[in-house]
């Protein structure tokens, strides 16, 4: 492709199905050159499929892609790149052990057998000089922050002559400050007509602040499109969900100041590779309050939740529940009412090959009424109890005998939540409960968490979604580098300080 | 992770899905068996042997006559127990292949205790007590032996398959050392063996059959293990750990205790097989105690998909194949390793069939609901 400057893209009548599942049905989209276009939709709406069809990773069943007004056939990502079409994925495709310069050279389609590093470096430096943002060329990628890695990914594609850039949830792993930096950077390039950007996102804040136009997908079909200045978040949300029904909300009841239920004192823990992940973390959660731990993933949150779930042994420190040392035995868990909803519930909290009914019974299978005298299982009672919970939490398909592994991610989440919120709950530890869920399901789960809090449960909420924490938490903590870097009540929380604390390494 | 899990019968009507899963559980192993038989047929056809004649002989040697049926049951008896020795830890998530070692250790324990109890051979009550004690010692020794790989795995992260395999080698070496050395009966000149048991202490036959009581032990323990695994909370907890140890940890299940109990039960079964081999068949421990029953038990357990109830028909099937060995050799002039070849085909076919589990279109209703 010899043309330079931003490219325009148009998609017409694109359809794709996987077996019986219709992922895209007759989707049309227009992205004029030199604009920043947002692609909105719930999980499963078809955004990733559409983008992968454009870039050539999937072959669409029907439909055309027009680049700069001319129809093109794209066989795969490499062919796409040759045409000036590039994609940045959510998970970085950089080689951590190599430097930035090496990564950028490696991405070229025509690397000679012997690389002339001096010439390459000069070309890179010239290129960087023209960019409004710099990244040190000789730093190893593994030492860069997530925001810098994201910029390297983008620069890499620009270096290859990309004129149309597709981004898949680019700010998911960034702090708010980093996210703004990257988006401002892209916005600048777009304004200079050097680049057209198509961004998959679900954050309305980003759409209204940076995007020119929006396309909304729902269940594989085009649900709406338009200029951002003509739309409000409410109308965009309505397009995504299909109704203007307000999602479930539970109101926050005034805090009643109950005594501390969960106390973590100077907790230290190591990761699997031996590095220290938790450095003397101390916090406490009282009954009837939600304590939210914000932070970018990878700062010790996963290890903290694993220790609290009994899946990782602490190296030092103490955990006390109801002011007694907690030893993670089944009897103590039952006595103190400790429940846990970890991230990736299928991998951490459920057994994929067991049925939904059996999974729902994991907490109480060894006591009456599900087991006579605690020994003889009563599977009929198990199934009956499961049916009640399936109905209450709208788990689909409503079959107690379906293996848990056959359910979709959202339904697995609901099933685990149904189990953990049943019975005598007094302490609840939750990690990223709404990850990968659609709008309505996420709102439903947040409402249930608020209800639990109102009923006096001590809730520790670990989340990478700052909006979620702000909505739900009574007190906000920030975890960075394995320590608590910030602590305040929600009313007095300072967003700028939180953002800075999140970025600290 | 979420996108590519293949559905096991997704949004289809409940009955069809139930039927589908049940059919899958039986049809896959049967298909595998058929494939193995066909492959075996091709194999011996290459030797110039008529495969159909071989098939007829296998049937006759396994189930054709009352005599061959009893022969089959005799050969199946130890497989029932060694199959359990593999299946029980497998349900708990441990791939322990130490049945052979536990069998040997159990037999050795029985052969050591037995001669010391010769004094009880006089009275019937005394003999019964002595037999019970011998078998109990065999079970205890096997249990302790198989708890070793389980403990090593839980507390030190040692791969249990490797450690149990190596413990087999150790057990056989210990057997040979003791049988040829300190425990050797000076009267056994050609074939070193321990002091033979007094005939009154030898185990008898199952009433009505000329098969020793080991068969009854095996059947009772298989049914007992099946009930334990499928109907009790202990079995449920074991299944949780076998399915996802992290989930077991999260709900507070004492994983260490569970592993040790599962290994102890497994080892007790294998130890009982060894003790029965000594007390019912051989009368003493010799080097031929390590006859490979433990390893055949691995095959039995996998074919039965680690379901104790299914071990019963599978053990009978493999016992039948082993029982037809003699006929194949004599009538068709095939080498004695031929039956091992058939066993090998069966094993490979069943393992390969496992990879199709849940993926065949017949039992899939389509992609799962988003």
Structure description:
The complex is a heterodimer of chains A (505) and B (370). With 505 residues, chain A is α/β, with parallel strands linked by helices. Chain A has three domains: 9-241, Rossmann fold, CATH 3.40.50.300; 260-337 and 424-503, P-loop containing nucleotide triphosphate hydrolases (Rossmann fold), CATH 3.40.50; 355-417, no CATH class. Chain A contains 17 helices and 22 strands. Chain A has helices spanning 47-55, 77-82, 100-106, 117-130, 146-159, 176-191, 204-210, 233-241, 301-308, 330-336, 345-348, 356-360, 379-392, 409-420, 439-454, 466-472, 495-503; strands at 9-18, 21-31, 36-40, 62-67, 70-72, 85-88, 164-168, 196-200, 213-218, 221-227, 260-270, 276-286, 290-294, 316-321, 324-325, 338-341, 371-372, 376-377, 427-431, 458-462, 475-480, 483-489. In chain A, the strands form five sheets. A six-stranded mixed β-sheet of chain A has the order 6-7-8-3-9-10, sandwiched between helices. Chain A has a six-stranded mixed β-sheet with strand order 16-19-20-13-21-22, sandwiched between helices. Chain A has a four-stranded antiparallel β-sheet with strand order 2-1-4-5, with helices on one face. In chain A, α15 (439-454) links the parallel β19 and β20 (458-462). In chain A, α3 packs parallel to α5 and α5 (146-159) packs parallel to α6 (176-191). Chain B has 370 residues and is mostly helical. Chain B has a domain at 91-290. In chain B, 70% of the residues lie in helices and 0% in strands. Chain B is built from 14 helices and no strands. Chain B has helices at 14-45, 51-64, 66-91, 99-116, 124-156, 160-180, 214-231, 233-243, 245-250, 255-282, 293-303, 308-323, 325-332, 338-354. In chain B, α1 (14-45) packs antiparallel against α14, α3 (66-91) crosses α11 (293-303) and α8 crosses α10 (255-282). The relative contact order of chain B is 0.21. Chain A binds chain B through residues 18-21, 44, 309-311, 328-334, 340, 342, 344, 346-354, 358, 362-363, 365-366, 371, 374-377, 396-397, 399, 401-403, 405-409, 411, 436, and chain B through 1-2, 5, 7-11, 14, 17-18, 231-237, 239-240, 243-244, 246-247, 249-254, 366-370.
